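Long-time lurker. I teach an intro course on protein structure, and each term I like to show students one example going from raw sequence to a predicted 3D structure in token notation. This year I'd like something fresh instead of my usual example. Would anyone be willing to generate the tokens for the chain below so I can use it in lecture? Attribution to the forum is fine with me.
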Amino acid sequence: MNSPAATELTPEQRDVLNAKDRIVVVQAAPGSGKTRLFVEVLRRHLSAWGQRGSGVAALSFTNVAQQEIADRLGGTSSPPHFVGTLDSFFLRFVVRPFASLLGLSPRGVRLLPSPFDLQASARMVDVAGNGKPGERVSIFALAPVGGNEAMPTFSCVDRFGRSMSVGKGIHEEVLQEKRREWLRNGRITHADSHYLAAALLRHPVYGSNIARIVCQRFPVVLVDELQDTGWFLGRALMALFENPKLRGLLVGDPDQSIYEFSGASAEIFHEVLRLPGAKKYQLSRTHRCAERVAGVASALSVSRQAINANGNGHGRAILLVHAHSKASEVSAELLLAQVRTMAPNASSYALLGRASSTVQHFTSNLRRDGYPGSMRTVRQMDMAARLLADGSPANAARIVELVLAELVLNDGPLLSVSELQRAGINARAWRLAIGWVTWAAYSVASPGESWGDWKRRMRHMLSNTSVALGRPLKNTVLGARFKQEMLDNEPRPPPSGENAGSSLVQSRLTASTVHHVKGAEFDCVTLFVPKPQKSGRGCPSAEWWSEGVSAEEQRIAFVAASRARNTFVLCVHQASYDALLARRPEFISLFEVHGGA
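-- Reply from a regular --
Happy to contribute to a lecture. Here you go:
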């Protein structure tokens, strides 16, 4: 018997729901109702389940997606079924039970929530960081993102999420160091767990038996957001589905695969479809995007899938041409005001950028309740406090580190561990100092604290921090950066999340990177693209349709456009517009063109 939700499904969705193939692979356009379909398939399996001792596994990429599935289902399912993340599934049912077969610690594995918390006690290796050789990083900070189980390749990010190049010759050394750590202490990161799951399921001796045991426990596996599956999680998943007794549903959109830096690849769709019993289905009709928006998204589709609007109106696609050399020159308020005149009735707006630095500028530019004075260091400290309040601790820490580096070391760029060591500063003490200063800027000493009180507190904190780091500051240095101003007697608004973003909330605006709004939708979306470099790098005409190389930039643009329900605004530099007009006139023809952004 069909549920009420099943009777409302589209013909495309019903085809998937009634499919009898061993592996049903669904390529779902943005806003096509894939999560609703996923839940309906899961509900049908659960209602008809009669196998004792086994269950259905419904897996998603993130905790947020997993919670959405559970909410739509009416609550989490109970054993023998499993609803959770791919990460937790393979850790619980593959890595922990069978890790000893790979020689891991007989005491079992211990999952580390962060690769940076235990740097001091972890083994360190030399990688090339920020173009400078000799950077020593923890093995916990190195994630296996490519290669194979015999010889994985690793990527590395620093404590602020910035990519660091890993020398080609050290991958074997990293694997050996990790194996020593796994054997002695059993400590693994999430990325290590993904690699170990693949190594176990693809092991030449044990792999097929481990897969058989897991498939007996879960003969049906449903996977959402397949395109976001990392490299080794994907290999582990493929090893399971190579078992002919496993049935499943794999849903996603290769056009929304924008996590290549973590090893995710849209190629997993092609690999799954080569398995016996696999068949592809499409959800091509969007219930989100208006006709003009769907047309832009179709033009950006790497897979060349046409996205059909489901009677959501014509909508608007607008191309705004700007002349700014840098994103910092843009008045986000003026840009938003211009967008509002074009979409005055929108219920929500999104201002998106590719780089977090662009978004940080827009965010600070749009706040009306931040520090209104002229002291640059004070403004930076206040912005760090408000970023922390908004749930962006990494960005807050970036700003504080810039302030500390400039004050203590007379050096603006963020510093590597080796650079700190050469300056005679302990890396752990430096990280703690950043945390102390960030928290002090965020905290409120007393109700009604004035700007002057807060500035004196910040000056005292920075002075004490410099002494603790062994680089005491002169009073004249801090005095020049914390001068008294007329507004010092005014009360400082508390940096709570609500107050910190009040101007954004009141304007119904979200300012974010494209990656952070994946899965969201807005009435009106504006994607700002800065001026390209002289080499052409950063120009949409070259990067959005780049044959033979990574299509990640094209996919990011696709995700941005497909967040819009009614209006999509693409804001590009005059040079990019000229190049698009010359190379992609058919793309330009999809837009109304306006200048003066």
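Some talking points for your students: Confidence is low (pLDDT under 50) at residues 1-6, 129-133, 497-506. Residues 451-468 form the longest helix (18 residues).
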